Amino acid sequence: MNSLRMLRPAAARAVSASRARMAQSAVVLKPSLNSTARQITRPLSIKSLFASKGDNDQSTAIKQPILSQDNLFHPMSESPIPEIRDRATIIKKYGTCPVCNEEHHGDRAAMQSPEFECPDCGLPTHCCEEHYHKGKTEHDKICGILREHNEDEHDLRSGRPMKEFEFPSAQGFDEAINMANWDVFFYTRSFPSMDSDRNMRHVSKLLTYPITIGSVLHESSPYRKQVTPEGLRSLAAIRSILYPKVILAKDGVTMLKTETVNLYLLGARAESTLPPHIWLQLSHLFPQTPFHLHFIGPDTLPPNREPYTTFLNDRLTFTYDNAMYHDYHEKIGSFDPYRDIYFLFAPGIGHPDSREAWKPSIAKALDTKCAMFITGFDQTDVQTDVKAVEEDHGEDFDWILKPTENHFKSLKHDINLQDLTQAICANWGIWGIRGKRYEVTHNTEDE
Q1: DSSP assignment of 179-225
Q2: All domains of the chain in start order, with CATH
Q3: What does the alpha-carbon distance between residue 341 and residue 319 come to, in Å, rounded to a whole number?
Q4: Rounded CA gap, 353 and 116, in Å?
Q5: Which stretches are annotated as coiled coil (predicted)?
């Protein structure tokens, strides 16, 4: 009983904080008469407050979770979720036993498929129990990550209400955004409270692409120490468009001069599959600026799908094209370092199978003198890409952002189903370059 009494004040404080947060979310912010900001209302659903008891019971019956939060761990082959059982089948069919791999020096013909499921992580990791115990010391290094992945995948399909995906709308005119890290960003953007690390992993996996872009371009960017003098020049030019100045017309009416910023996402894969409304979170960081996102690359669209352009609203336009960038480049015509920016999410520039294919595209992008930001899924991936670009284009670019860990990387590990020893975080690191600019100097000695 004493322990329960000790918990009650903490619970009461949590409830009070939650109610206060809900109340704040319904506040209408009214700017002064002289302000150019728009009136912003953050809607709060009150359907449940006025629903009848019968409606609530019916809704509860329909939306009953398949799995409870204390029942998320299951061996993959015995999972109640068909999609996860299918994933176990893929691992067993295409995966490899790490002990067999070591014994046979990578000869797949001599290796056996992983049929034995680890009792701790639930994934099929080894060909048999004997090899499991033989390789357990090495497996323990990643076992925790694999179990986390197992539970996260079950949670996403558990049928529970995913409150963490109820993203906020436009930012209030007097509310500053801090881009220091995920925690501070979520707080200053009034995201729903993240009650667990799992919630953070789910949301960061979804938002890592738009918020990585925003974190580089935003005036409160966390990369000030890594930005070079050339980078300051490029970002100053870009931010002059992202943060337009108020212009007072002759008739006394205030106006904002806005220009569309083009974001060229080269080699687009996962980012091109995001629902368009997810990109609103980037748009909300720069409420006065329209964006046109160009998803370019052979994996952008399904095979035989024609390129197309679509609109979400008057500030978000999307173009999807399966062309290689050096071919797409010719369609654009002119480029402006103030309004055109390149982003490459884990492009694999240094991978032996894709290095040659990337050379003409990188060369074309550098010719525009526009900023280019590139991410990698781990430190080795970043270093490999940097080395390849330095060797292939070393005399053609200036550094604008030195390689560093991305503050807005995905907190969720992605697992290679063909090799469970490989676990990565999307957009782990980031760096930036720009085509070299040559300044003409006047030598007085020649006169």
Answers
A1: -SSHHHHHHHTTPPP--SHHHHHHHHHHHHHHHHHHHHHSTT-TTTT
A2: 76-156 (no CATH), 188-435 (3.40.50)
A3: 15
A4: 33
A5: none
pTM value?
0.82
Banded model confidence at residue 172, pLDDT cuts 50, 70, 90: confident
CB 126 within 8 A of CB 99: yes
377 DSSP assignment: S
- The dihedral built from the CA positions of residue 59, 63, 64 and 68, taken in this order, carries a sign that is negative
Q: Is the pLDDT of residue 445 over 70?
A: no
Cα-based angle 287, 288, 292 (whole degrees, multiple of 5) = 90
How far is residue 211's CA from residue 145's CA, in Å, rounded to a whole number? 24
Burial of 50 (0-12, 13-18, 19+ CB in 10 A): exposed
Amino acid letter, 443: N
How distant, in Å, are the alpha carbons of 18, 151, 187, 191, 192 from that of 11? 10, 26, 21, 21, 18
Closest CA to 185 of 217, 213, 166, 211: 211
Whether the predicted pLDDT of 44 surpasses 90: no
Check if the beta carbon of residue 77 is closer than 8 Å to that of residue 91. Answer: no
Given this model, what pLDDT does residue 7 score?
35
Sequence-ordered list of residues with C-beta below 8 angstroms from that of 366, at least 6 positions apart, any chain: 372, 393, 396, 397, 433, 434, 435, 436
Contact 340, 260 (CB under 8 A): no
Cβ within 8 Å of residue 95, ≥6 positions away: 113, 114, 124, 417, 418, 419, 420
Residues 14 and 21: their CA atoms lie apart, in Å, by 11
Q: Which of 296, 354, 304 is nearest to 330 (CA)?
A: 296
> Which SS3 state, helix, strand or coil, does residue 124 take?
strand
- Count the helices and strands in the chain (H runs, E runs): 14, 16
SS3 422: coil
Question: What would the pLDDT profile of 214-249 be if each residue is shown by its tens digit?
Answer: 999 999 999 999 999 999 999 999 999 999 876 555
Residue 404 CB neighbours (<10 A): 16
pLDDT of residue 45: 34
| 42 neighbors 116 (Cβ within 8 angstroms) | no
Residues across the chain: 447
DSSP string, 223-271: TTTTB-HHHHHHHHHHHHHHSPPEEE-TTS-EEE---PEEEEEET-SGG
Residues with Cβ within 8 Å of residue 102, at least 6 apart in sequence? 135
